[in-house]
Design a protein that fits this description.
289 residues; alpha/beta; Rossmann fold; 13 helices
């Protein structure tokens, strides 16, 4: 059976990919990091190639070369299938359906307000490695000015998931909530592993062995806001990287009321439809409704 996992929960998706999907012995993993350059190029072509240059048959051959007879579960997982940097999310869905029309599709989703905060922290950490700091307000001004070219374009889950349900069939599409992973990792792993038809205990053990995308230390943000600008750049970079490596209490971003209102307006109606159409307990887990 072939499964497609476009992701959505961002850092949680990356953890599942690297810690579990790529290492579980019962899964043939098609994703990044790919085992060979041709598969890597094919996966990226699905997302990025202009329709004038996209070669579906070449992509099919490149991915088929990674498949072996008798495997129980084949999993194609790449979070950029639903990322704003892709050519077009609807076009990506259509290409995936063309490649694997009988596949089952599952998404890992997370509260949109938390995705927004986590995405900012991920970006600011990258900037701080090079002694550049951008405050949340400045970052928000940039992304809200061009929402179709930012993470804001990825927060309307219902529209994206509905497209996959239309193509593959509602009965072939499933959602798993990041909040349920946090609340009860064992139950979450059992549910996902059961959906994939793989050993749940091995699934949970692999996920517990490490942490991808480590959290941003709170002291790193404090350093970026205060001391960093007074230091020579070379020393500022060195100190930033030491703070990242040292870890510590997790940084948190509280969305300003006007930003939360913006996200509510963007996502609430779609979330209500998602909860209704797929019988998801979004209200219980604090989604904007």
């Amino acid at each position: 059976m072939i499964f497609i996992h476009p992701g959505m929960a961002k850092s949680a998706t990356t953890s599942l990919q690297r810690l579990v999907f790529a290492r579980h012995p019962e899964i043939t993993y098609l994703g990044l990091p790919a085992a060979d350059p041709a598969a890597k190029a094919a996966i990226r072509e699905i997302c990025r190639a202009d329709s004038l240059w996209y070669d579906g048959e070449r992509v099919r051959r490149s991915l088929a070369a990674r498949l072996h007879g008798g495997e129980q579960t084949v999993l194609l997982s790449y979070e950029n299938f639903t990322l704003y940097e892709s050519k077009d999310k609807g076009l990506v869905a259509a290409r995936l359906f063309e490649l694997f029309p009988d596949a089952r599709v599952f998404f890992t989703i997370r509260r949109q307000q938390d995705v927004l905060s986590a995405w900012y922290l991920q970006k600011v950490q990258k900037h701080l490695r090079y002694a550049h700091f951008i405050g949340f307000e400045q970052w928000w001004e940039m992304i809200s000015d061009l929402p179709h070219r930012s993470i804001l374009d990825d927060l309307r889950y219902h529209e994206i998931i509905a497209r996959y349900a239309e193509l593959f069939g509602r009965e072939r599409v499933r959602m798993f909530l990041h909040e349920e992973l946090v609340a009860d990792p064992g139950a979450f792993c059992k549910d996902v592993a059961g959906f994939l038809g793989v050993d749940a205990q091995r699934f949970e053990r692999l996920l517990s062995e490490g942490h991808e995308n480590p959290t941003v230390p709170a002291r790193l943000l404090t350093y970026g806001r205060t001391l960093m600008r007074f230091l020579p750049q070379r020393f500022a970079r060195k100190l930033a990287r030491k703070l990242i490596a040292r870890g510590g209490q997790r940084a948190r971003i509280e969305l300003p009321p006007e930003v939360r209102a913006f996200v509510h307006e963007l996502c609430a109606e779609g979330n209500r439809r998602l909860a209704r159409d797929f019988e998801l307990p979004l209200a219980r887990h604090g989604y904007l409704l």
